[in-house]
Write a structure and sequence with these properties.
Rossmann fold; Arc Repressor Mutant, subunit A; 2 domains; five-stranded parallel sheet
Length: 197
C-alpha cells in the first residue's frame, strides 16, 4: 500500500491503521517522492491526497497512467472537492473518499480496489442497477443529480434551478433514496462510472 499525503499526521495515522490491518505500507510526503521511489513491478494500491503542493493527486494519476502503471488509485478529498474527484474518476481513479473519513470506509475502499485491480466495472451488475434506478428519477431529480455531481452546493443548485436550497435538499433526499446511494461520495462515484458525469 502506497500512501501519498503532505500532511504528516494524516500520513502517519493512515499508515498505522493500514499496518494494524496487515497491509505492507510505504509512506510518501510528495507525489514526486513516490514516483521517484516506485519500483517495477509495482504492486498494491495508491492512496493519495488530491490537493498537495507541487505535484497534486490528479497529476500523479496522469503520470502513472501515461507511464503505463495500472496500480489502482484512490483519492482522498476534502469537502468541496467533488469536481476534482469526478475528474480523478474520469482519469481512472478507482474511488475517492472524503476527509474526514471513517476507518472502515477507507478499508472497504482499499479492499475493493485491490480486488478489482483495474477490472472494468461496466459489466458490474451493481452499476447496471444504478443506471436503471437513475432512469426512475423525475426530470427535476435528474437536474439536481447533475448539479450535485458537478460539485454544486444546495445554495448554488437552488440558484441555478431557481428553487430554494431547502427544496434542493428534498430532491436530493428523494434521488438518494431512489438510487440507493448511501452517501454523496457513492452517488458521484457511480454516476461517473456510469458515464453520467
Amino acid at each position: 500500500m502506497h500512501v501519498v499525503d503532505d500532511d504528516p499526521a494524516m500520513r502517519d495515522s493512515v499508515g498505522f491503521l493500514l499496518g494494524t490491518e496487515g497491509f505492507e505500507v510505504r509512506l510518501y510526503e510528495t507525489a514526486t517522492d513516490f514516483l521517484r521511489r516506485l519500483v517495477e513491478p509495482a504492486a498494491g494500491c495508491v492512496l493519495t491526497d488530491i490537493r498537495m503542493p507541487g505535484l497534486n493527486g490528479l497529476e500523479l494519476l496522469r503520470r502513472l497512467r501515461a507511464s503505463g502503471h495500472k496500480l489502482p488509485v484512490i483519492m482522498m478529498t476534502g469537502h468541496g472537492d467533488v469536481p476534482l474527484a469526478v475528474e480523478a474518476m474520469k482519469l481512472g481513479a478507482c474511488d475517492f473518499i472524503e476527509k474526514p473519513f471513517d476507518d472502515e470506509a477507507l478499508l472497504q475502499a482499499l479492499r475493493s480496489a485491490l480486488e478489482r485491480n483495474g477490472a472494468a466495472e461496466a459489466v458490474d451488475p451493481t452499476l447496471r442497477e444504478f443506471v436503471r434506478r437513475v432512469g426512475t428519477l423525475s426530470e427535476r431529480e435528474r437536474q439536481v443529480l447533475d448539479q450535485l455531481v458537478a460539485g454544486g452546493t444546495s445554495k448554488e443548485i437552488g440558484r441555478t434551478l431557481d428553487i430554494s436550497p431547502r427544496t434542493v435538499e428534498i430532491y436530493r433526499a428523494k434521488l438518494m433514496a431512489k438510487t440507493q446511494a448511501g452517501t454523496l461520495q457513492e452517488l458521484v462515484r457511480w454516476a461517473v462510472l456510469a458515464g453520467l458525469a
